[in-house]
Amino acid sequence: MNVAINRKPAAKHGTAGSDPGLQFESIQLREIELPLKAPFETSFGITSRRRVLIVRVFDKDGASGYGECTAMEEPFFNHETIDTAWTIISKYVVPMLASAGISDAGSVARALAPIQGNCMAVGAVETAIWDLEAKLLGKSLWQHLGGTKNVISCGVSIGLQKTPEILLEKVTREVASGYQRIKIKIKPGQDVELVKAVRKEFPDITLSVDANSAYSLDRDAEMLQELDDYDLLMIEQPLSAGDLLDHAKLQGRLKTALCLDESITSLRDARHALELDACRIINIKLGRVGGHASARAIQEYAHHKNVPVWCGGMLESGIGRAHNIAMSTLEGFTLPGDVSASARYWEKDIIDPPVTVTPQGTINVPSSPGIGFEVNEKEIEALVKRTEEIFLGDG
Ligand code: OSB
Ligand code: MG
User: Fold this and answer.
1) Disulfide-capable partner of 141 in 73, 123, 273, 326 (CB 3.0 to 4.6 Å)?
2) pTM confidence score
């Protein structure tokens, strides 16, 4: 793609005549760092702080929309990192948008489709453009996306803990807070015993496990079959992302539904997974699938196939969290998501008010324009480590 970027501010011009749709002025990238209240441990590592890449898209009249890149610092959840995402956005996403002449948020993903993979980079910008478009229309993002409910159901994801006793304490606290589904992380050597312990204390809660790709069919099929005895809602991503075939073989041996997370990056992946019976539930993460248009298409397809979906989490700051809330209002999201209160993660979130959860384990979806939360620019500016602003010119 041959595009020139005008790095100087483009001249403001009015929007006389017919509505030309979105007119981008610039895209601003900022990195901040937020310490987690407590380290979050999964089978692939421990996260103690979140380096967050915030995308802000400005139009020619100064309106703006926000997105968050959900890539982690290291390429262990998937191949992306926040540094690769920064590069991909700055070198490819922005120039391609500049030359594509995008007029609406729904066309962004298609214009960026030549970019292979790097969904979290693409999704960060795509979601920001949806927020901008909703704001320009004076509509809440969830309504703009076509959401059908203004209350969503929430679960929590609890990381691996030093001891089973500490895990039980954490589960106790989250159940008491009202969360509707508890998910615990597992990995080889910390699996059946943990599930057994939690199930014994809490015979009636809705419980699931997430392995983040830590097992293999050859080695671990027996252990995974043992999990069938604990009435789990699902086993999330037991095998590697690319192992759809082995997930299908495993699903054939289990009563418990498998749920895929890392394996699903597109509607095509979702179709392959369901046609293979590699899972019976799908976790949708906005970054992992490249943004709202892709997420919406996947949930629509799954809903049509009677397969439940739910909103996954990536330890997001308030901006990503707000996008997750909006997405969760779509019809196919019938299971509680990993969308929980800001206070579980951060001393101080970067949105006002922070995300709060009712004692019934629900979130009341805000109705103000766009993502529906005020972004605390002062707080962001106080935390910012790195900035780049790229002007789009006239394409
Ligand atoms: O697999 O769902 C996952 C966090 C980081 C990376 C991957 C995952 C997770 C979580 C936490 O489970 C979800 C959250 O509370 O944001
Ligand atoms: Mg997961």
Assistant:
1) 326
2) 0.94
